[in-house]
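Render Lipoprotein in 3D.
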Amino acid sequence: MGRRAVAPVSRLRRARAALGTAVCALALGGALTACSPTFDWRTVMNNDNGYTVDLPAKPGNDQRPVQIAGQPMQMAMQTAEAGDAVFAVGTVMLPNDDPQIQRAALEFLRTGLARNVGAAPDAHAVQIPLAAGGQVPGLEMKLSGEAGSQHEARTVYARLVARGRHVYQAAIIAAKPLPQEQIDQFFSSFQLY
């Protein structure tokens, strides 16, 4: 009779021990997951296009043709994905540094970003830092709307700036709003040569 009473208590202790071990393993797994960064920031120096920026993952490169003010141009893109967001710097190489062509390129980028999410192309002035010190005037945008054939919610954070024969678009396209520190990391690191 004593054996029967001991066996259930022993099984109960083993079950509690196993449950405790499982809880510890889950907690440790959660802690390790929390330590693995979604944002693995690295500084990228793009000497060809004249900028430096921090990106949250190893960037990919792409290039596509664009038509601005009736002229064919090329837009180079450097993109990195992290979490539910794409971080990108696009650079349009202009045929010359004519201020009228610069304005046309800025307008092309501004309206294109807004059109992609079905929003008004609202922007306000911002200063873009130069790597050597100083700043140049640019535009800043925050747009929200729906994008793509699935009409998925997107938030776009962007800065646009013209300098010489380049027009730049630094942008974050996110499926949900990002923590401000991730936005600040990206935009505060974006500097022109």
